[in-house]
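Hi everyone,

Forwarding the result from last night's run.
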Amino acid sequence: MFCRDCGEKLSLRFMENEGLVPYCDKCGKFKFPFFPVAVSMVVVNREGSKILLARHAGDEDFKLFAGYIKKGESAEKTIPRELREETRLTAIRWKYLCSRYHDAKDILMLGFIVTADEGEMSFNEEISEARWCTFEGAKEIIRKNSTAEYFLNAAISELSRKK
């Protein structure tokens, strides 16, 4: 591990109430590891009856919409930006659902239910196809045993309680 500010090799030092934490002798500071965070969005129509899933370019499976939170940006700013960039749809409202560590990319995913208009979609180069599905249809085509499936099931459980 190296300091992201000066490049010096970090050592582990004991910090009260934290245990062993990376420390930079050159900066004279504890350096907690950088940890990327992203939003995962279960996008639903206004009625809350359909879920929008996407197939990414070069991938066979359908997934949820997601995006990294940029430096200086909040999760609440990331949601409408990412949805607009990927589909041209407008996020009307969103609600935090739950979080989950995504080991494949070493990232913390913040799950949201996002309500969007069912307007005309166009995709950026990341998305090859998107499809509005019923709850059952979404469960059938989502990548099995994935973080996306975890968030989808949590959202469907939450949305079903409201009906």
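The domain at 37-161 is CATH 3.90.79.10 (Nucleoside Triphosphate Pyrophosphohydrolase).

Cheers,
N.
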